[in-house]
């Protein structure tokens, strides 16, 4: 999983204090103790729910003091008892944030979806979409596991950029998309190496080709090109191996992967011309040489 983002997420300010006193939270033990008693006794002992303002201020204070569960409780109580108050929309957003801090990402997404459904034109909509995307991003799995979560994170991050390209969240969303793409490329490389070890060269080539075609900006491309040289040589596709080596030589001449490819090509007497004419064709050699292979 990626490390927790360090991007600072601002919090709405507390509601102005009035003369209403603070009310304590209802202890769970007290609710359990009330079971089995008469209705009149329960009514006599049942604590009263505080005002919407009090609940909101309690929730914000709890959030600021890192008592996230208490914060969620306060915001949830506010929403259930005062669904139309002036504090309810912020409470939905803040409860989503508190759940995010608790690593309860599905609950956070559910709360944020509710906020966006009820308040699609809110000034805080960009933040809500961004926080929702972070919930998916934090769940990105190791490359050894299924990457559906990475795809969902990319989709959510791209939605932030599409909807709010000028927002302060768009740049961070793009950076995280790039990391997700690198992650997906890493998964393709992992599978490709496994196929190559099993001598299933055609399947391995398909994985490496996808990295070069679909993830050209990632740091996995040099290795993908070098391994394509290897599998093409193993399949007897000497000209494809030579052209792929030329692409690698032009774009990554200082890479250790180019050195490995050079040794493989030289062993097959394919070095002559591999970096001559191709190397002088200009910056578009990558795309021209690549498409000539397929």
From TrEMBL:
<keyword id="KW-0564">Palmitate</keyword>
<dbReference type="Pfam" id="PF13525">
    <property type="entry name" value="YfiO"/>
</dbReference>
<dbReference type="InterPro" id="IPR017689">
    <property type="entry name" value="BamD"/>
</dbReference>
<feature type="domain" description="Outer membrane lipoprotein BamD-like">
    <location>
        <begin position="52"/>
        <end position="244"/>
    </location>
</feature>
<dbReference type="InterPro" id="IPR019734">
    <property type="entry name" value="TPR_rpt"/>
</dbReference>
<feature type="repeat" description="TPR">
    <location>
        <begin position="89"/>
        <end position="122"/>
    </location>
</feature>
<keyword id="KW-0998">Cell outer membrane</keyword>
<keyword id="KW-0472">Membrane</keyword>
<dbReference type="GO" id="GO:0043165">
    <property type="term" value="P:Gram-negative-bacterium-type cell outer membrane assembly"/>
</dbReference>
<dbReference type="InterPro" id="IPR011990">
    <property type="entry name" value="TPR-like_helical_dom_sf"/>
</dbReference>
<dbReference type="GO" id="GO:0009279">
    <property type="term" value="C:cell outer membrane"/>
</dbReference>
<keyword id="KW-0449">Lipoprotein</keyword>
<comment type="function">
    <text>Part of the outer membrane protein assembly complex, which is involved in assembly and insertion of beta-barrel proteins into the outer membrane.</text>
</comment>
<protein>
    <recommendedName>
        <fullName>Outer membrane protein assembly factor BamD</fullName>
    </recommendedName>
</protein>
<comment type="subunit">
    <text>Part of the Bam complex.</text>
</comment>
<comment type="similarity">
    <text>Belongs to the BamD family.</text>
</comment>
<keyword id="KW-0732">Signal</keyword>
<dbReference type="GO" id="GO:0051205">
    <property type="term" value="P:protein insertion into membrane"/>
</dbReference>
<dbReference type="InterPro" id="IPR039565">
    <property type="entry name" value="BamD-like"/>
</dbReference>
<keyword id="KW-0802">TPR repeat</keyword>
